[in-house]
Structures are given as C-alpha cells and as structure tokens.
Write a structure and sequence with these properties.
The protein has five domains: 147 residues, Immunoglobulin-like, CATH 2.60.40; 140 residues, no CATH class; 126 residues, no CATH class; 155 residues, Immunoglobulin-like (Sandwich); 104 residues, Elongation Factor Tu (Ef-tu), domain 3, CATH 2.40.30. Helices cover 10% and strands 41% of the residues. The chain is built from eight helices and 49 strands. Strands 1, 3, 23, 24, 27, 28 and 29 form a seven-stranded mixed sheet that branches. The chain has a seven-stranded antiparallel sheet with strand order 44-43-47-48-49-46-45. Strands 33, 35, 36, 40, 41 and 42 form a six-stranded mixed sheet that branches. The longest helix is centred in the first third of the chain and has 18 residues. It starts with a strand and ends in a 5-residue tail after the last strand.
Length: 744
Amino acid sequence: MGYYSNKQIAKITEPKELTLSGNPNFITIESVNDTSGDIFFSAQISCKNLAMGAIPDYIPADRLEALIRTASTFTIRLKESNTSYTFQGTYDKTAVNNSTFYIAKQGDIIDNSDIVLSETQALGITAQNIRTCLLANSFLRNNYEINIISTIFSEELICDNSYVTIKGKGKGPQYNFDIELAEFDEPLTLFDNETWFITATFTGYPDSLMQNDLFGYSYRSPDDRYSIGTFTGVYLEETERYPGSVYVVRPQDNGLTMEECRQETLKNLGETLNNNEYFNIFYSATYDETNKYLVLIRKADTLDYTIALSLNPVFGTLTNGNRLVVDVNLETKITYATSSDSIDGGKGNYRIDLDIYENTKTFLGNSKGELCNEGNYLTTLSKAYSGQPLWFDLNTLMNKRAGYSPNFLDNDNTWADTGTISSYRFVAKRSGEGSNLSVYYSYPLYVLKGYDALLKDSDMEQPDNEWHYYAMNFSQKFNEASFDTGKALTTMQSRTHIKGQEQYFNFIALNINKGPYLTVNPPRTLPTFCLHYKLYTQSGNFITEYTSHEMNEKEFYSVNTARLDLDRFLPTAPNQAGTERPVGRIDVCLSVSHYDENYNINIPLTPVSAPLTFRILPENLHTVNNFAFLNRLGGWDTMNFGGTASTDFKTTASTIFKTLQPQAKPYAEVESVVARSVQEQIVAQTSPVTYEVVEWLRQMSASPAVYELRTKRYIVVDEMNLKYNTTDDLFQIEMKYHYTDSSK
C-alpha cells in the first residue's frame, strides 16, 4: 500500500485502505533488523561493610559523618554526554535528601519497635535507601528500571539483598554509564595524630611496673612554660599511700584471668588520668569495651600546647590516631548496552514524523500510483523513538475530518454522492540530529463516516460470511462465470416498506474506470449500471421486474446513494399474463449490462450485488412519518415512526421592570418583555417492531445526522426510548427530537 524510499531504515506494517472512521486503523513502524539479541545496559551497586556496629560515644560525630560521606560517595557518569549525578551516604537521618541516603548500622533499633538490626538487615535497608535516592533523580527514573532483588528463605521469610540493580529501559549507547567510587591513597581514619590509643600487653608483674613511671606526659605552653607529670603502678594496698597512682590488678587479688586483669588495669589508668586536675586539662580518657583499648582524645582548646606522652613499654603500646575504625566501601558491576536498531542505532535521539495530507482527489482503489497528487497538507504526527515499535492510530485524526452530504434529499432519479468518504495519505519520516529522512510514502487511504465495535476489524474491503462485499469491485469482468458480489451499505438487508415511504440504496464503488475500455477494437464504452427491482407476491411467486437509476460506470462516486423507486407498481403489479397481483416483497440489487468479449455481444442485467429486500405492508393500516439516519457504515437508512406523534412547546420570556411615573395610564408597561424564546420538542413513535429492528435502531440512535424527510429538516434526537410488549414480543420505539432552526 505504499512505496519505501529508504527500506533499510524502517519496516512498515501498513494500515487498511478503507476503514470506518470511528474504529482504529494502525500503522506500525519498527526496526528492519532483529534486535532480540541486543543487550540492555545493566549495573549493580553492592553495599559492603557499611553496617558497622555500635559506635562508641567518644568517637567525634563530625569526624565520623565526614568519613562516611567521603567513603560512600559514588558518581554516575554518562559515557556519551559526560553528564554526572553524585550521591553520598550519611549516618544523620535529618541530612537525607534526593542525593544523600541514610546508612543503617548493625545494632540500630528500628523506630517504634524493639527490633535490633543485624548486619544483613542493615545492609538491606541501606540498599533500599540508595534505590530511593536514585529514583528521586528524574533522568534515572525515566530511563532505567531500578530495583532490589529479594531472596526468599522460606514460605514465611523474605529478605532484601544488599545490592541495587539498574537496567536501561532501551538498548543503545545512550544508556551506558560508569560508576565512579571514592578512591583513597591511605586508609580512612576517624582520628588525627592528637588522638592516642593505649593497649595493655603485660604478661606478668615485673618491678618496672611498680613504683616506677607507668605513664608520663610533658607540655610546653605558648608562652614557653614547661611542665611534666608521671603516674606509677601500685598494688591495691598501696594506693592510699600513693595518690594519683595506677592500681595494677593481679589474678590473686580478684580471681580474674590475665586478660581480664589487663583490661581492668586499663580502666584504672583511664580513671586516674581523668581525675588528675592537670592532665584532664589536655585530654579525656575513655575505655573502649569493644576494641579493648584506652582512648585519649585531645581537647580542642589546648591545641596550641605542645604535648608529649610516654608509656612504659612493659605495660603495653601507645599509638597515635592513624587507626582504621571502620572499613567503608561500595562495589559495582556493569554490562554495557549494544544495539543493532536500524532506526536510531540505540541512541534514542530520533523521532518518527507522519506528514498527513487530505483530499487527495483520487478514487477508491484505482489511484495507487499517484504519489505526486498528495492533496492538502493537514498536520504532522510525531512520536519519539526509543527502540520499540511505534504505532499511530490514523483514524483518531481522520474521524474528525470525516463528514457527509445531504444531497441525497434532492436527488430523485439520479445517484447522489453520499459524501461520507474522506481520502488522505501520509509520508513517514525519521527526524533527529538536524536531519529529516523520508522513509515511506503511503497510497491514498480512505475513511467512511461510521463505526463498529471498537475491537472489531473494520476493514471495509473484506467479505462477510456469505462472501459479499460492501466495496463493489468495478475492475472485475462481470461476464465471467463467477465474480465477487457486493452488498448494500447497511446492516439491515431486509426490512419493511409502506407506499409513500422513502428508501435508499447505498454502495461503495471500488476501482472505478474513468475512461473507455481498450480491450477490443474498436474500443467499447464503459458498462452501464442500474438498480434492478424484482417483485414477488407474499407467497414468493415472481410478478415482474423493472430498472431505475441507470448510469455509466465513470459517472459514479466512491460512495453512492439513490432514492429507490419502490412505489411504481404498488399496491399491485401486472404479471406476464397482464393479471394484477398484490405485491408482497421487492428485491433490489445493483445490476450491470455489459459486453461479452468472447462472443462480441451485449449481455443485459447481470446482478452484481446481493438483494436489498423489502416486505410490503398495507398502506391503509400504516401512517408514513419517515426519518433518514446516517447509519454506522456511512450510508443513509430510513425508519418510519408511524405511531402516535405529539408536540410540546415551552416558552420563556426575559423581562425588565420600569419605573412607575405619576402620569401612568392603565395600559402603561410596568414590566416589559425584551426577549422571548420558544423550545419545541416533538415526540414520535414507531408501530410495533421486532427485536431485530430494535437492534438496528439502537445503532442508528448514535447517528450524527438525522433528517425528517417530510420537511427535509435536520433534527437533533434528544432521547430514544424502548417500550416492550410482552404479549406478542414486539417493541415500540419512542423518539424525542427538536429542529435546529426553531425560533428562539
């Protein structure tokens, strides 16, 4: 249904040529290459060693926060654009924002509960917090699937893993990025050189620990004053004789193990140092139960003093602040995307444009090569391409352009253009990176003003279950033994008729030949089509036949309407013997008289459509009050509302009040009418009808165009109600309507 101008760029799933405007008609555009083997970008961020245990009170919070922020920082940097997004962790819940995530710690207690976090739980919570941060970034959220895969341990236990998975929503290099983690030349430490750690390592009780310097310090003030201090080790009974001494615990004193004695002695040393009025000016001492050492933390207001510390090596070790307290790090894993997409190569920076042209001035079926006749530019439909097939519903736009013509109201003996078909075409383009490349030029496409069930295929060139076509193909040779027969453009192929009632025959003409045939010499004229009537009695006996609305093929429109000449022989018609017989049924079909090339003769009246059947009702028992509806297939149908009818009037007035004057007479206007409106509503009812007719009317109740044929006036149907007669399973339809040109 069209021409490719760059077939290697895109593959087109073409729309249907003729559809109903109220139903979808899709065009799909996708890559020529099979992209099933392409790889999506994926990355993984794993939390490692972030869930440290309980943090001792002596550790400076600001230093710890600075360390964790530095250690947990990572940057996502796009490879193509070099755009970067940086994220970092924190132990401070109040510092959380769109780029800062909270790091849960082993030993934390969950809010409003008594649940103590394990290391696995803490890492899982931290991973969830990282995911929340990533999703807060609009670019990452819109272009990547960001998830955490959970592990099921049992039927009742599931746990979040400690890694975040990131997957591109499309394939192509524009999704590739690197994750840059913090790098450190030296291990991260919580303390500087002004913080000291004392570890007890003695294994016995040599004399060097007793009555000798166990710990000492010296300082020099900014004004060059100098002082020293020492602390000695003593046993329990000697502490009172040596104030400021350190009690060295022995197993025989308390029944403790050697290791317990060392730790108790460290505690005693810390207590002694904190109680010393001079040493306490410079340092505070804290025993760390977890790491089993004594921490000496320098006080900030003494940093201008020069201080030296010493420890008896027999007692243990004294080291300054370069001690690694927590190992903080993240791990990443990345798989880069690949793409074989023929439209954008996976870059994601192209869109598909459809330039729509209407009124192509072509005829249905026989205009496929006229690409130069593009009609009038209407609009451009655009969608961004992201590696997935794109679709456009063309009828969403064209439904607003489809219309109809009321010319059938004035045509008695000639065919009228129904006016319900609209033509258009489109040009598909790939646009982006400053260029517009045409890919595909469509043939002319057509929509009929109509609708069907939304999910039903509305291809009007397909046959029904009896292999009859709504679109009559005029390119066929009707002198062949078989050909595709058409059908009237209505869903009610059998109906009733009362003399005086107007009825219409509609059909779609496909492949109309606008010129003479050249298949014989001399060339013959185009075939003549007409409406062929066959009259039968109520019992089905043939009475007679006649024709009307003869017209040459080239004179037809794409959709045609004719007012039927059903009343010519009603109520009776003469048969071949000249006897008048009452007419009970009339079959009307489209027929053609054509030239038989094989025998060089004209063969008359070959039916080319299925019959439209009318069952004749007695005119003396029914009243004609006929209405024409635009049916759901784009043709004109009529329905008789020959039951009771009534008219309701409602008038309203707009008035003003005038000031009463002293000289006013009885005929003076105190209240005057400045405007008056009249609302008229007419109620019409059908005679009792069958359920089949009710279903037909239900379809036509949605008609956008209804005419009262008695007056040829356009009406607006306000309401249509159903009344059911349970006695004989017949129904009565009541229609309320008003004229659009009524006085207001």
